[in-house]
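Hi C.,

You asked whether I'd gotten around to modeling the 131-residue construct. I have! Everything is below, sequence then structure, no commentary in between.
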Amino acid sequence: MSSLRGIRQAELSKKLYTLIKTENHSIAAYEAAAKEQSHIASQLSDWGEETGDDAISDISDKLGVLLAELAEQEDTFAQNLEDSRAVLKQIRNTESSVQPSRDHKAKVCLLITTLLVISLLCPTFQARIKY
């Protein structure tokens, strides 16, 4: 784990924390791919121009434009992933903030159940409970 923040997460948000971290790596990969694709498109276009052949120059320029468009789409996808990651962070934070209430509710329910079982098993205990 790359940080200590993941250790303190509430049980329900631990998996979400892992998903957010993994998605961050995925976003970085898409951004790097987009940058590399754009660089390749530029190199291909430049190479075609340097050949001196009009047909090769035209085709390499068109392929370069297509590759540049693909790079732009990958970059847009990475940005959209980042937006969805922000929403997941909000959900994780909400989960973390409500977990103490859930824990308290479970503790109270367990206490009530325990008292009910004790009262059923021990009739003298029933006399001490005031409703």
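If it helps when you're writing up: The radius of gyration is 30 Å.

Thanks,
B.
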